[in-house]
Amino acid sequence: MKIGFSMGGLGALMYTLKHPEDVESILVISPFLGYPGIIHEIENAGGVRKWKPGNYDPEEDWQRMLWDSLKQIAAGQKSMPVEIYLGYGTEDYFAPAHKLLADLLPRDHVIITAGGHTREAMRWIWLSFLEKKLIKTVILN
Question: pLDDT grade, residue 136 (50/70/90)?
Fold first, then answer.
């Protein structure tokens, strides 16, 4: 399992998109998923499923590549044998992007709590995933 908090969540997602064979599951807590411009564009389109990414260079536009990949996975157009889990706080400044991702995931893969982009909220989410046994094994090095 790959686990990432905030910017580490973005890193975990990007790594998993490029190397899904190396990852069994991924847990992202309060991940950074792009700048407001792309998030507003997707929201204004009516969500990820309705959004059209247009032509872009995936090496130059990581945000479109990320969201286009997530859209294709949700539509079954791109295979990703990886379970994705998401946790975030309702007052997190990245919450609009989190809601877009949550709409693509099974409900039992998402944990939402009150709070912002804080250590306390992230800790509560982490412990909730552990408590629900959604995370099978945690190995600390």
Answer: low
Superfamily grouping for domain 2-131: Alpha/Beta hydrolase fold, catalytic domain (3.40.50.1820)
141, 101, 73, 133: CA torsion to nearest 10: 40
Give pTM, 2 decimals: 0.91
Which residues face 26 on adjacent strands? 2, 84
Provide the b/e sequence for 59-77 (b: ≥16 CB within 10 Å).
eebebbbbbbbbbebbeee
Question: Around Cβ 121, how many Cβ atoms within 10 Å?
Answer: 22
Q: Give the separation between CA 20 and CA 112, rounded to whole angstroms.
A: 25
Tens-digit pLDDT profile for residues 98-123: 999 999 999 999 999 999 999 999 99
